[in-house]
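Pasting as-is:
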Amino acid sequence: MIVANHAAWADWIFHPYLGWLLKRHFHALHLLGKTPQTNADHPLLLLTNHSTWWDGFFVYLLNKKIFHRPAYLMMLEEQLARYRFFSRIGAFSVNPRSTSGVMKSLDYAATILRQQPLPRPLLCIFPQGELLPWARRPLGYKRGVQALMRTFTERINVLPLAIKAEFLNEQKAEVFFLFGENQVVATGAFPDMKTLQDDEEKLLDDLAEMIGRGDRGLDLLAG
C-alpha cells in the first residue's frame, strides 16, 4: 500500500492551486445547515457519499475552512499510484480487490486515528468504496468502517456529510454540503453499517430538499 506522507511544502503549493481550480470549474460551493462542532480531544471520522471525482478535493477544502485538523483520506490504490503527489497532502491507498490489502489499509487507518498531538486527526472514508451515481439507493456501504472501529478503542467523533453537485441557473455546477449530527462514540457504541447508511441516505434526501427550495447557505467559495 501507499502511505500518507504529509509535507508542508506540498500543502503550501496545493491549497492555493485548489482554490483556483475549483473557481474555474464551479460557480460556487455552499455549506447548508449548521457548521458542525467536533471535540478536538478526539479524532474525527468523516463519512460521506462518493458521486464525483472532486469529492476528495471538497473534503480537503472543508478541513481548511472548518476543522483545521491534520487530514487523511483513503483513496483507491490504482488512482493514488497515478497521482502520488496526493500522498503528500494526506492520501493513503486501499486495494479493494485484496482482502489482505484492505486489512492492511484499515490497520494503517487505525494508527492514524491514534495520533495524539492536538487537534487530533481527521480521517475521511467513502463507505461506498467506489464512485457511484448520486441517486443510487441503497448506497451500498461496505463494512470496512466497522472493521476499522473494532481495532480502535478510544472515543471518536463520527460525522456524516452529504455532497451534491447541481446545475441550476449558471453555466457551471454549484456544489452543496450538508453535515449531519456529530456523535462522540466509543467502540462498543459504534453504529452498525446499516444505521450509518440509513442516516446518510436521510441526510442526502434532506440536502436535495433544501436545494430544491432554494437554500444557498454559507458560500465557501465563489467562482
